[in-house]
Amino acid sequence: MPITVLLGAQWGDEGKGRITDALAADADIVARFNGGDNAGHTITIGSSVFKLHLLPAGIFRERCLNIIGNGVVLNPINFLKERDEILAAGFPVTPDNLQISEAAHVILPGHIALDAAREATRGGIGTTQRGIGFAYSDKAARIGLRAGLMREPERFAEDVYAHTERVNRVLEREYERPPLDARAAAAEYAAAARQVAPYLANTARTLHRALAEGKRVLAEGAQAVMLDIDHGTYPFVTSSNATVGGVLTGLGVPAQAVTRVVGMAKAFCTRVGAGPFVTELGGELALRLRGTGANPWDEYGATTGRPRRVGWFDAVALRYAVQTNGLTELALTKLDILTGLDPLRICVAYSYRGECLEDFPQDGEVLAQCRPVYEELPGWREDVTAARSFSDLPAEARAYIARIEALAQVRVTMASVGPERMQLVTR
Ligand code: GDP
Ligand code: IMO
Ligand code: MG
């Protein structure tokens, strides 16, 4: 009863969508366990580029059942938009290939308004403004609405109305913002509920049965270790567990079922939103790594379009990701972007007030003062985008991968050399 987990090992946007899509070819079920439509997972199939926010990346595989687990927070309006886009592209999204947990919490208009209001204050951290933090707050405070309530649109509408009225008082008093139209919100959500209801299911039961039958389950993480509410760079984090524990709570599956934990890293680092970023680069090098936005893979957020901050590869952070999650292997993406850069740099330790730190610090104030200690490696000039096996890669690229493996104590089993499905090297 094997579960393969795929998690972001950096700050998000490592290429989880494209690797999930690749691994989904051999999976029976692909399940999202955390986050919501703050995620943006890009899958490139030929000349088509899809950006998924809520749908699991198994949606393009004919024989996959896709699950949106109880650990996810669901915006029903954005879910239906995304469903319609994928349907229009010719892929089925029906209750036969998609189930939504009735225990998932619903993101309401008030959550989104509060997220926007908070972000406009000095307390903002650069969220995606999808209402994620406020939806999880209500869940923890036990006043959230669960997706199962969408089976009764009238009652659901009453609760959406009451929630919106409650939020309106906060919006007006605390943030001096105009109130939301609670009646319109209730009507809009009730209409969406009627369309979402057929997808609702007891997804934990579905998973238990599938595991008992020996089916192969792939758990698709959103966000990443450094954005994890407990283990990330708090408070510059998201509001769910993006680390391996989130799989157990976010799907309701037993720990022993997890047999493989694949970490995802880019061949360099990016971060979108505020917070410490030890290897961050500025100037020409940053522009070179980020790209101008002319290519679909350039470093601009898949959800918000914001330019991503970029930096050299951080092996201290990766080691922490390996330890926190027990990563059994690593997939490394965007190797092609490093082509032509010479020398390459990898951060092997942090320098903090003259002290050399080899472990990632939990204290955000320490982290904010850390400076990178770099090791230089020779770059390569050869185009790698046509590589299909590790031996096709230039010796310098193989040495770069080997150094990451040695520093983080994890084996790189997949490397990508372009965004398209075929541009993947496995070993
Ligand atoms: P996710 O959130 O982890 O799924 O990653 P995103 O989709 O937000 O960001 C990854 C970006 O890199 C997307 O635009 C992908 O199409 C692109 N990408 C993934 N792997 C590669 C690769 O090997 N080379 C290039 N050039 N782009 C890649
Ligand atoms: P994927 O799954 C990168 C970041 C936001 C912000 C912080 C909190 O595509 O890797 P939130 O809206 O969650 O309250 O924002 O987390 N963030 C992401 N950054 N990739 C993501 O998802 C992210 N989801 C949230 O930029 O800094
Ligand atoms: Mg993304």
Description:
The protein has helices at residues 16-23, 76-88, 109-119, 132-140, 153-175, 182-196, 203-212, 245-251, 283-290, 315-325, 364-369, 395-408, and strands at residues 3-8, 29-32, 41-45, 48-52, 65-68, 73-74, 98-101, 105-106, 200-201, 217-220, 258-266, 269-271, 309-311, 313-314, 329-333, 344-352, 355-357, 371-377, 412-416, 424-426. It is of the alpha/beta class. It folds into 3 domains: 3-101 and 200-262, Adenylosuccinate Synthetase, subunit A, domain 1 (Adenylosuccinate Synthetase, Chain A, domain 1, 3-Layer(aba) Sandwich), CATH 3.40.440; 105-196, Orthogonal Bundle (Adenylosuccinate Synthetase, subunit A, domain 2), CATH 1.10.300.10; 264-426, Adenylosuccinate Synthetase, Chain A, domain 3 (Alpha-Beta Complex). The strands form 5 sheets. Strands 9-7-5-2-10-1-11-15-19-20 form a 10-stranded mixed sheet, sandwiched between helices. Helix 2 (76-88) packs across helix 6, helix 3 (109-119) packs across helix 4 (132-140) and helix 5 (153-175) crosses helix 6 (182-196). Bound molecules: guanosine-5'-diphosphate, 6-O-phosphoryl inosine monophosphate and magnesium ion. Magnesium ion (MG) binds at residues 12-13, 39-41, 302. Magnesium ion (MG) binds next to loops.
